[in-house]
Design brief:
Layout (H helix, E strand, L loop, with lengths): L2 H4 L15 H15 L6 H11 L2 H14 L10 H13 L3 E4 L7 H4 L7 E6 L8 E6 L5 H16 L3 E4 L5 H9 L4 E5 L12 H10 L1 E4 L11 H12 L2 E5 L6 H11 L3 E5 L6 H11 L3 E2 L3 H7 L28 H9 L6 E2 H8 L3 H13 L3 E4 L3 E4 L1
Parallel strand pairs: 3-4, 3-7, 4-5, 5-6, 7-8, 8-9
Antiparallel strand pairs: 1-2, 2-6, 10-12, 11-12
Helix pairs in contact: 2-4, 3-4, 4-16, 7-8, 10-11, 14-16
Amino acid sequence: MSGAIDEAVDGSGSPEKAPSSSKAVREDRIARLRLIRTPTVGPVTYAQLLLRFGTAAAALDAVPDLARRGGGKPPTIPSRASIEVEVAAVETAGARYLFLGLAGYPALLARVTGAPPALIVKGRRAIIDRPVVGMVGARNASASACRFARGLAAELGERGVGIASGLARGIDTAAHQGSLDTGTIAVIAGGIDVAYPPENATLQDEIAERGLLVAEQPPGIEPRARHFPYRNRIIAGLAQAVVVIEAAPKSGSLITARYAGDFGREVLAVPGSPLDQRAQGCNLLIREGATLVQNADDVMEALRPIDPRATLGEPGIGGYGNPRVPADAADTDRRAIADLLGPSPVPVDEIVRLSGRPPAIVQTVLLELELAGRLERHAGGQVSLA
């Protein structure tokens, strides 16, 4: 096995001290990956399982029974051998893992409910310890917008700010090009070894050498439509502020901005002509309260330490704070909570209110339902029947 999982680093870049031995560390990482890759274990459920059972190994043992309580068949847990194949692929790619809850994982992202249980990174990890600004925008951006994005990214980089974007065509590409010499973070939708879009393959390689490449999906995974919102939430979670430069009203860039607002980050936008469809999303953001950006000074004024009360969670695992006493649900609890669920997403807080059950009981039932494949989680802490 490899250094891809054997070590973790803290903010200074030093190896994490092993809790007992390198073998124990490796076994824990393998168990975490088996849990993460289990089909019905999403980021929220992963965090709750670790908090409830303490270790990934104990959580794996509990998954089948919890799924049965949720009224479904136990999910197929990946074998150790399949995880070893994945780890070998990460090592071959020259990358390594950062695990939620362990040293080295991005501190701001760790506070977000639904944070990725593991990231695969390649390059200069220390960039994420700087102030980071997300920069996103239209794929079919105008030449003037790309020039502005490239110049803004370069000037912010010279002031010690890391630039995070999604390596898409247009504004993302310009942002990475402008900050390649000072510190750029490319969050990609597919595997760490998959170049997308193909024309950015050389740029992706350069970022892996000089900046930081970040992936949530395992190696070999080609990006699909559902992966891009996941990527967008990582960009927003890594950043103290997100700048939008040209975006249509229903674009992925506005999804990133929405995540940023939900996470308590600053949302900034560059205004444009009302006659240009690509500017309508930015103008809408400004009308709704986003900070208008004309230069790097405007962005720097918006950068400030994140107020912990403004984030969705607490320090700990995926915004869930410290371990708490497990809450076992009765069959009457399960029926009452399941009856409140339907195909339309509903906030978890509303289920707590309507059911009259304690939040811990509600979370336990939702955990069981998700493991059984009967629950789907949505942005904004909402859930529905799958």
